[in-house]
Amino acid sequence: MNDQDINIPSAVEQILSETDDIEFQMTSELSVGALLQTLAASKPAGHFLELGTGTGVATAWLASGMDAQSKLVTVENDSAVAAIAQKYLDNNLQISFHVEDAAASLEHIEQIGQQFDLIFADTWTGKYTHLERVLDLLKPGGLYVIDDMLPQENWPEGHDVKVAELVKVLESNRELLLTKLNWASGIIIAAKRTVY
């Protein structure tokens, strides 16, 4: 399957057009978005967390898979790129935008005791920092999803070591069952289970 075979939601197309205008390079691939859409659809009345809204490409994919009872919290610290996401998605009352540092958002989420059925960590926070805190927010049976696990042209020197370390940490977590996909930008899907 290639990108031409993917049924792209209209909001994604609009966001991609404006994203190209500002030459923002860090959007999720279409195939990753299609996966997120499917995973969101698998969680009726689900509560979802996205760390790293960017311009809202993955946000729109998640929203397109959600049912009417689902809710999405999405966090971005760059107000300029978040403004694009809000321009096209702010009318969706199921989405709650937080334009702030992700660590601050996590602290607030912890204070109110919120938990999630799916967490898509698409920024440094939630992958390479604050990982345990993020995994604690995942409900049993919930899914933790990350991309960009295969080598990327924009990786800084030494980032491959950080990726390898992250994979080892996830693999050693007895609460997680992992599937590593050598597909798109490199996906890991981890399901949280109860360990007795």
Notable features of this structure?
22% strand, 196 residues, 7 helices
Describe the structure.
- The protein is of the alpha/beta class.
- It has helices spanning 10-21, 30-41, 57-65, 79-89, 102-112, 131-136, 159-172; strands at residues 47-51, 71-76, 95-99, 116-121, 138-146, 176-181, 187-192.
- Strands 3-2-1-4-5-7-6 form a seven-stranded mixed sheet, with helices on both faces.
- The longest helix has 14 residues, at 159-172.
Broad shape: globular
Overall residue-averaged pLDDT value: 92
**Lateral arrangement of strands in the main beta sheet:** 3-2-1-4-5-7-6
Low-confidence region ranges = none
Give me the number of helical elements.
7
Question: Topology, pairings included?
Answer:
Layout: H1 10-21, H2 30-41, E1 47-51, H3 57-65, E2 71-76, H4 79-89, E3 95-99, H5 102-112, E4 116-121, H6 131-136, E5 138-146, H7 159-172, E6 176-181, E7 187-192
What is the compact description of this entry?
The protein is an alpha/beta fold and 196 residues long.
